[in-house]
């Protein structure tokens, strides 16, 4: 009996826990391992401590046949993962592969900063305080298309959109299966499969080289694509805040400028992740945004749910992620606001959305940026 095989039920459980809790659950359920003072004892069957060699399974799309897809590796506490690293997403459970890293500034309002070297909130936001940014690693990754239909905690499986390169300034194009992943969300694994990830860009961006670790190395097309599209892909700032056990993480991206009716329109996309850090089941009911433009305008937006959904955050499904877009007739501005959640007893509470800047960059039209088909968003 293979004592370290991860069953399909546990694969889905990766999305139920944070990174530390995920590994604790895997250790207990896979091998019946025990911990003493926070240290894992070796598995009685395989002799491995800490689950570094734990094998896991993934079902085929029909959900009837289990197949081995790889062997877990010990996650990196320091440093970064290299291009070609295979991983499971610790929250959403999908298989993916690292393309390249980004070094972002994380502004975490849950951390009390010193008074110096800090970044101020925009004027007029409530609870104003200074927040110090800390360098944090994120990764540009490809998502295995076989797992996309099963990622129920997201409104879509792409986090990257581009402005269309024609006269319609509101047309957007999306790259399916391209995502940004925080370092702590990476559960690394290895595989002997030469094409372990199914994605139309996998073999265009990466090639198998058994002499390398990891054995998937970047092609020249990946380097050229990264350099060409750096302004539209770059992740620079991440903002985070927790209210009543609901953590909101916001990542804004500049998309470019278009001319419309003799004026300039600047576009941004923003990716938001909502996480329930507590045990109580809650449901998002409303959103309330304030959008300030450098031109001096202040817009208020209220509405039901987000992207047409009212997600439930529970212990089993603690996170929900979505992307949206905003445009201004000015090269910069700020956004902030709140979400209204409902408890099981019918009471409501508001969760703060951390303020974040909308900053433009030098505008170059992204032309020929993707070696492959697009899908219209």
TrEMBL record:
MF (Gene Ontology): DNA binding
Disordered: region residues: 111-131
Keywords: DNA damage, DNA repair, Mitochondrion, Nucleus, Phosphoprotein, Transit peptide
SUPFAM superfamilies on file: ApaG-like, YccV-like
Biased composition (Low complexity): 112-123
Entry-linked SMART domains: YccV-like
Domain ApaG: 240-365
PROSITE patterns, per the entry: APAG
UniProt KW Cytoplasm keyword: no
InterPro entries: ApaG_domain, ApaG_sf, Hemimethylated_DNA-bd_dom, Hemimethylated_DNA-bd_sf
Record localization: Mitochondrion matrix; Nucleus
Keyword flag Nucleus: yes
Gene3D superfamilies reported for this sequence: ApaG domain (2.60.40.1470)
A single cellular component GO annotation: nucleus
A Pfam family hit: YccV-like
Function of the protein: Involved in DNA damage tolerance by regulating translesion synthesis (TLS) of templates carrying DNA damage lesions such as 8oxoG and abasic sites. May act by stimulating activity of DNA polymerases involved in TLS, such as PRIMPOL and polymerase delta (POLD1).
UniProt-listed PANTHER family: F-BOX ONLY PROTEIN 3 (PTHR14289), POLYMERASE DELTA-INTERACTING PROTEIN 2 (PTHR14289:SF16)
Protein name stated in the entry: Polymerase delta-interacting protein 2
Source organism of this protein record: Scleropages formosus (Asian bonytongue)
């Amino acid at each position: 009996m293979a004592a370290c095989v991860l069953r399909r039920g546990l694969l889905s459980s990766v999305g139920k826990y944070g990174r530390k809790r995920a590994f604790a659950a895997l250790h207990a359920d896979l091998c019946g391992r025990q911990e003493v003072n926070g240290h894992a004892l070796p598995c009685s069957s395989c002799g491995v401590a800490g689950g570094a060699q734990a094998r896991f399974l993934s079902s085929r799309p029909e959900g009837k046949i289990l197949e081995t897809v790889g062997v877990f590796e010990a996650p990196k506490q320091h440093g970064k993962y290299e291009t070609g690293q295979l991983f499971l997403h610790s929250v959403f459970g999908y298989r993916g592969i690292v393309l390249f890293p980004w070094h972002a500034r994380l502004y975490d309002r849950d951390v009390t900063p010193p008074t110096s070297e800090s970044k101020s909130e925009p004027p007029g936001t409530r609870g104003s305080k200074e927040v110090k940014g800390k360098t944090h690693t994120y990764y540009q990754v490809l998502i295995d298309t076989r797992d996309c239909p099963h990622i129920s905690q997201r409104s879509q499986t792409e986090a990257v959109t581009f402005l269309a390169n024609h006269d319609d300034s509101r047309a957007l194009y999306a790259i399916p299966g391209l995502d940004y992943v925080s370092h702590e969300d990476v559960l690394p694994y290895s595989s002997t499969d030469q094409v372990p990830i199914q994605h139309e860009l996998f073999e265009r961006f990466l090639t198998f080289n058994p002499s390398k670790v990891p054995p998937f190395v970047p092609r020249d097309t990946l380097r050229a694509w990264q350099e060409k599209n750096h302004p539209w892909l770059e992740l620079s700032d991440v903002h985070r805040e927790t209210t009543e056990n609901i953590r909101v993480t916001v990542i804004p991206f500049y998309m470019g400028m278009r001319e419309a009716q003799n004026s300039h329109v600047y576009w941004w996309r923003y990716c938001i992740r909502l996480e329930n850090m507590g045990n109580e089941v809650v449901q998002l009911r409303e959103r309330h945004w304030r959008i300030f433009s450098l031109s001096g305008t202040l817009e208020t937006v209220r509405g039901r749910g987000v992207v047409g959904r009212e997600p439930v955050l529970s212990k089993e499904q603690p996170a929900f992620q979505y992307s949206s877009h905003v445009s201004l007739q000015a090269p910069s501005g700020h956004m902030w606001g709140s979400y209204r959640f409902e408890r099981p007893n019918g009471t409501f509470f508001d969760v703060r959305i951390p303020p974040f800047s909308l900053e433009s960059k030098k505008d170059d039209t992204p032309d020929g940026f993707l070696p492959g088909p697009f899908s219209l968003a």
